[in-house]
Amino acid sequence: MDFGIVGTGLIAEFHAKALSEIPGARLRACFDIAPDRSAAFAARFGCTAYSDMGSFLRHPDLDIVNICTPSGLHLDAALPAAEAGKHLIVEKPLEINGERCARMIEACDKAGVSLSGIFPSRFHDSSRAVKAAIEGDRFGRLTMGNAYVKWWREQSYYDLGGWKGKKALDGGGALINQSIHAIDLLRWFMGPIEEVCAFTGAAGHSGIDVEDNAIAAVRFANGALGAIQGSTAVWPGFLKRLEVSGMDGSVVMEEENLPFWKFRSERPEDDAIRSRFSNVAGAGSGASDPAAIGYHGHKLQFIDIIASIHKGTRSLVDGREASRAVSIIEAIYASAQSGKPAKVSEL
Fold first, then answer.
1. Residue 297's closest CA among 129, 45, 124, 161?
2. In a domain? residue 129
3. Domain with 100 in it
4. Is pLDDT at 69 greater than 80 in this prediction?
């Protein structure tokens, strides 16, 4: 299938590299409002450069458009692309609030095109091992689920990023930008979150109007409880960590590793799982450097999306699925602002 990329910043490079490793996937075109950036990206990845969106969408070979613009501009690119009949892959977050997510989903439904949101952590083998254990009832009744993204960003990250740390385009801070992958995994593992009670603050960076520090207590629909911590003000930055516990077992995930995997009923494969995920080679982490991530998860997700389009089925992370983490984060922001618990309302 033939791809085009909208926005040629850092994350677009990961998209292009992932596509280059997929048989039958061809990057045909890129668009950026800055002609020099578009031209440089096109020269690097061997595609046609555009600085006019209409011309980009009229490129003769374009099946799928990957949207890699600042978060609050995702909808602006998605609407004309959907109207032009292009399938969409949108970087996280799908958009900066539920209303904009809903408009994107509605537009894609109306146009009859596929919409997927990027959450590559779901495609890591360790994540799938945890999900399989949950579906196999190895945990028994789930009782607690926690997500911790205590990362570090230098002041220069916000000073030079332009849109980063600005609510109008970033939608928020450490939660919606950095922690959203862990929040998506937590919801995927534990099920829907019904209610949150949260505090947020700008503790360590200047010139931002969003949080760089956040904590939320959560209550899941199944009765389990949990916590979410997100920060870009924790030096030197720690690995993304998730904890899933039940009456019959507990698992700890750190990025793609599983440093703790224990169940009341041991199985023959458990030792192999502990060994395999004790030190995963090539696992990246953005704990202190946003560029220090891998793209193998993107590659696996793109393969899933391509297969779903060929089959006419939904991808693992379709638009509605991708919007759920945004709904959780919106509720956290609402709770922090009001000083009261807030309900989570999913699309």
1. 124
2. yes
3. 2-120
4. yes
